[in-house]
Design brief:
Length: 331
C-alpha cells in the first residue's frame, strides 16, 4: 500500500535550523526488539486525520470543514495542534481531502490580510494569523479514498518519514497537553506504541475499542497492553478501559497498515495494525487525567464550545448571559 493516496499538496518549512543536531532516530523494525535500538527515539510529528465529510454536521460542512468550526474563538483543529505543540511536536501532517480546499487554505500565509489588519489597528488578530505555522511546519496530504482510519494514517507515511509520531483525532479536544507529553515519554522509554485510555462504566464498553491489559495500572496511570478488542460484548470485554483519540506510534505501524485487508464497509482499521504491534512489541496505554470533550456530534461540539467560552470569560458576563438564555429556553 506504499504511496497509496499520498500526494503532498502544501508544505511550509519554517525555522528548520533548530532541528539540526538532534539525536539519531530509532526505527523500530518489523519483528524487531529493543536490541535493534541504535539511537534515541524521536517523536516530533503530529498526524491529524481530517478527510472526513462531517456528515453529522450537514448542511454546514457542505461548505465549511468541521475541523475549522470554532470552539470558543479557536478552530477545533488549532486546539488539537496547540495541545501537540505544547507537548513538543514540531511538524503537523494534516490528512485532508481534495474536497476540502479551505482546510489547506487555513495553513497558508496571507501577508495581504495581515497587512490590512495591522493598518486597521487589529494587531492582535494579525499576530494570531501570523503565528499559524510560524514556529512549526505543516504538510497537507490528500486521502484519495475514504477507506478508514488505518488508510488515513497510512497516507501520511511519506510525510512522517521514519520517525515515531502522534495521531490525534480532531473530534476529541483535550483540556491540556499533559496526557500527550506522558504518552510520548512512555513511547521513548519503551520503544513501543502507546494509546490514550479512559475508564468508563463497564456496561458502556460495547461502543468502543477496549484494551486487554497485562497486570494493573501503575501509579502513573500506565498499563501494559496485550491486545485491543473492537466493540466487544459487555460480558466478553477484557476491561473497562477504552481507547480514546490519542496515539503515539512507532513507525513500524506503517508496515502493519500496508498489510491490512479491508474489513466491514471496506475500511482499513487502525486497530488491526495496533493489535499486530501489541502481539510482538512493547505496547502501553496511559489513563487520561485531563478533561476531554467529544466533539463528534453537534451536541458534544456545543458543550465543548460553551465550556471553553465560559472558562475564557474573565469578566463573568458570558456565564450570566448563558444562564439567562438557558432559563428563557426552559421557561
Amino acid at each position: 500500500m506504499d504511496g497509496l493516496g499520498q500526494r503532498v499538496v502544501v508544505e511550509r518549512l519554517l525555522d528548520l535550523d533548530r532541528l539540526a543536531g538532534l539525536d539519531e532516530l530509532v526505527y523500530v523494525r518489523r519483528h524487531g526488539t529493543v536490541k535493534d535500538i541504535v539511537g534515541v527515539v524521536q517523536v516530533r510529528t503530529l498526524v491529524i486525520p481530517a478527510a472526513g465529510l462531517g456528515t453529522r454536521f450537514l448542511p454546514v460542512t457542505k461548505a465549511v470543514p468541521k475541523e475549522l468550526m470554532p470552539v470558543g474563538d479557536t478552530p477545533a483543529i488549532q486546539l488539537v495542534i496547540d495541545e501537540a505543540l505544547a507537548a513538543g511536536i514540531e511538524h503537523v501532517v494534516v490528512v485532508s481531502s481534495a474536497t476540502k480546499p479551505s482546510l489547506q487554505r487555513y495553513f497558508e500565509a496571507d501577508p495581504a490580510l495581515v497587512e490590512a489588519l495591522r493598518a486597521k489597528g487589529a494587531d492582535g488578530v494579525a499576530d494570531r494569523l501570523e503565528s499559524i505555522g510560524r514556529d512549526w511546519r505543516v504538510t497537507v496530504v490528500h486521502q484519495d479514498r475514504p477507506l478508514g482510519l488505518g488508510h488515513a494514517v497510512g497516507c501520511a507515511r511519506e510525510a512522517v518519514g521514519g520517525e515515531g509520531f502522534v495521531v490525534s483525532l480532531p473530534d476529541e479536544i483535550m483540556g491540556g497537553s499533559a496526557l500527550l507529553r506522558q504518552m510520548i515519554d512512555v513511547c521513548v522509554d519503551t520503544s513501543g506504541s502507546v494509546v490514550g485510555l479512559m475508564e468508563i462504566p463497564r456496561d458502556e464498553v460495547s461502543a468502543y475499542g477496549v484494551i486487554d491489559p497485562i497486570g494493573e495500572v501503575d501509579g502513573r496511570g500506565v498499563v501494559a497492553v496485550r491486545d485491543l478488542v473492537e466493540k466487544p460484548p459487555v460480558e466478553a470485554a477484557p476491561s473497562s478501559m477504552i481507547v480514546i483519540g490519542r496515539y503515539v506510534l512507532t513507525p513500524d505501524v506503517f508496515d502493519e497498515i500496508a498489510l491490512l485487508t479491508p474489513g466491514a464497509g471496506g475500511e482499513l482499521q487502525l486497530t488491526d495494525a495496533l493489535r499486530a504491534q501489541a502481539s510482538r512489541s512493547p505496547f502501553h496505554g496511559v489513563i487520561a487525567a485531563v478533561d476531554r470533550w467529544d466533539t463528534g456530534t453537534p451536541d458534544g461540539f456545543l458543550a465543548a464550545a460553551v465550556e471553553h467560552a465560559v472558562r475564557a470569560d474573565v469578566t463573568g458576563s458570558l456565564g450570566s448571559r448563558l444562564r439567562s438564555a438557558i432559563e428563557r429556553a426552559a421557561g
